[in-house]
Design goal:
Radius of gyration of chain A: 13 Å
Structural class of chain B: mainly beta
Number of helices of chain B: 0
Order of helices and strands of chain A: EEEEEEEEE
Largest sheet of chain B: 7 strands, mixed
Largest interface: A-B, 26 and 21 residues
Strand content of chain A: 35-45%
Number of strands of chain B: 11
Oligomer: heterodimer
Strand content of chain B: over 45%
Shape of chain B: globular
Radius of gyration of chain B: 13 Å
Structural class of chain A: mainly beta
Order of helices and strands of chain B: EEEEEEEEEEE
Helix content of chain A: under 10%
Distance between the termini of chain B: 40 Å
């Protein structure tokens, strides 16, 4: 079965840059998507197609891709960015979609 | 405004059946795939399956194939997730969400979630 691997946790101070990675063998050929989930709330799409930002998502959120790793970057982290972040993508055949295990972002 | 409104929380016993719903509005319901995502208590998101209400084409994750049934009634813009015999391990929050474009894409709009508790 296909898996996407994320670090369990990332910690940054306010104003710094947070980088959350997601690794998977099929990422060179499949788009990745990123979601933010705050406690007690439904997930929110923050990045689609590796690096596109939906309307209404702050510019400090960006995405990039390099080989088998995609990265969500949050520049100038704010306290309100503290949340769980999940990547999503498909296996090489495109027939199985999966989520990564999630990364808890803590703003110190 | 695109909205997905899910049915309310459920408390069931093991072995019982259940069908939860997700009503879409503010867009052409038959033109977008709708998916279901499970989140067990304190755990991550799991992609369960999707349906295209226009023709009821349905796809399941291998992990959920045979365990649940996804359906839709386009006449009332509503998608469903159902179980024939619940287990305690089905206790989770279930989200419906609309796919952005095509069957292999992101979920751009989400329902508020339906909490299913299965306990004897």
């Amino acid at each position: 079965s296909y898996e996407l691997t994320q670090p369990p946790s990332v910690s940054v101070s306010p104003g710094q840059t947070a980088r959350i990675t997601c690794s998977g063998d099929a990422l060179p050929k499949q788009y990745a998507y990123w979601y933010q989930q705050k406690p007690g709330q439904a997930p929110v799409l923050v990045i689609y197609k590796d690096s596109e930002r939906p309307s209404g998502i702050p510019e400090r959120f960006s995405g990039s891709s390099s080989g088998t790793t995609v990265t969500l970057t949050i520049s100038g982290v704010q306290a309100e960015d503290e949340a769980d972040y999940y990547c999503q993508s498909a296996d090489s055949s495109g027939t199985r979609e999966v989520f990564g295990g999630g990364t808890k972002l803590t703003v110190l | 405004e695109v909205q997905l409104v899910q049915s309310g929380a459920e408390v069931k016993k093991p072995g019982e059946s259940l069908k939860i719903s997700c009503k879409g509005s503010g867009y052409s319901f038959t033109s977008y795939w709708i998916g279901w995502v499970r989140q067990m208590p304190g755990k991550g998101l799991e992609w369960m399956g999707i349906i295209y209400p226009g023709d009821s084409d349905t796809r399941y994750s291998p992990s959920f194939q045979g365990q649940v049934t996804i359906s839709a009634d386009k006449s009332i813009s509503t998608a469903y997730l159902q179980w024939s015999s619940l287990k305690a391990s089905d206790t989770a929050m279930y989200y419906c969400a609309r796919l952005t474009d095509g069957s292999g894409s992101s979920f751009d709009y989400w329902g508020q979630g339906t909490l299913v508790t299965v306990s004897s």
